[in-house]
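Entry:
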Amino acid sequence: MVTSPHRLASEAGLRILMRGGNAIEAAVAASAALSVVYPHFCGLGGDGVWMLADRAGRSTCLLGIGQAAARLPGDDPIPVRGPLSALTSAGLVASWDAALKHSRRLWGGCEDLGILLEDAIELAGAGFPASPSQRFWLGFRSADHESWPGFQAHFAGGGEQFRQPRLAESLRAIAEGGARTFYEGELAARIARGLADAGSTLTLTDLAATQTREAAPIRMPYRGMTLLAPPPPTQGATTLAIMGILEHLHLTGLDGRGADVLHLCVEAVKQAFLDRHLIADPDFAAVPLDWMLDADHLAAKAAAIDPGAALPWPHVMRTGDTAFIGVVDREGRSVALLQSLYYDWGSGVVAGDTGILWQNRGAAFDRSVDGPNRLQPGKRPFYTLNPGIALRGGMPALVYGTQGADGQPQTLALLLARLIDLGLSPADALAAPRFLLGRTFSDARDTLKLEASAGEATFAELARRGHEVSAIPALSPLAGQAGVIAIDAEGGVTGAHDPRSDGCALGLGDRT
């Protein structure tokens, strides 16, 4: 099964599974296709974070995260758009290479990268109907993107088919020359020249220094399962901390749409987010993971939650948009992948004539003198991407992830509670009303934003407990775009992608 936020990307991955390819190979094909058909949320100029697990008990994380340029701009605040926000290299293409090496070494993979990019190349060259999400975000930023270098020529055109011929050429170069041509070859030189001409401080040397890190996942026991998340600089520890707090609270038997479950999840989020500022690149700052995920520490946070009253929201908002891909193959080998440009449309900067839109992940750094996430050459920023896999008896049982920056841990915690504690199916868990705590791009209030489908009684009860609740439409994109694949004890799979997205889950075999 493959799940992604765009049907064409899910189809690209499914075709590889139909050929007999494994989950990593299918995920690379879906990732490349999604980089074409969801250009507002992800692309070759962005990053990717992978979680991998199989029935042999092996699990690992691939951190395809670009590092800050060696030569940084001045001391002014980092802009959220434009060339000075394009100050980290892009790790997605490098992550494809690392994932395929893992595939060949441990999962019997044999597919060539060129084969896996065929759908993406065809979609970029021949075109596809722009999704409602793409059209929405293009219109939403219409007052801004006229000033973004190279953007108008590549993304602002109309017509029934949205074509990206320059991107097709870049994908073809990668298919023919391999992933490293993006960082060290002729394509890399064109990328570096285009970024420099736009005013970015990234250089060819910075691109060549980009590597995917392989790391052990961090873990949290939950209701007899083991939850896996990526380590720092991602916020995976925050998601696990929320679940570690919920482990001490009683959810089973509660109404999945009611105020009790929502209140406990919201309060667990607040407690976990108190520690999130400590997460940074561990190469540059000590991150106290053992303390953050310590059972006694989390038990104390659970004990601080009042079932009948809300605490204040103590967090400063981070924004960002992402795309999730989940794949499970016939051997139960599982992939959870998130890829992103950070904000919708990233930096807005297209790298010269390559058709590659660059991320603005550099805006996730801060300019403090001594903060753990301060900007430094070669450093990876604090990272919101945290896809997950849950193990049962050491084998993959749930594959999940979501778009949504600050909302990612919130959405994942609510989904996991509904899947594990309340026994909902992936489709029902994804369709149920969700919340987003804190500010958004369209609402600067630190309110509890709740989908209207939760019902008047739930709104009233949450307000009675002290939550400042504001309604957002049912199935609002503000509540994240998530995907889930569930694997039962016999190996059967069920899955879905968020009804808030343009995507779907597509499966092979008798049980999908």
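The domain at 216-318+388-506 is CATH 3.60.20.40 (Glutamine Phosphoribosylpyrophosphate, subunit 1, domain 1).
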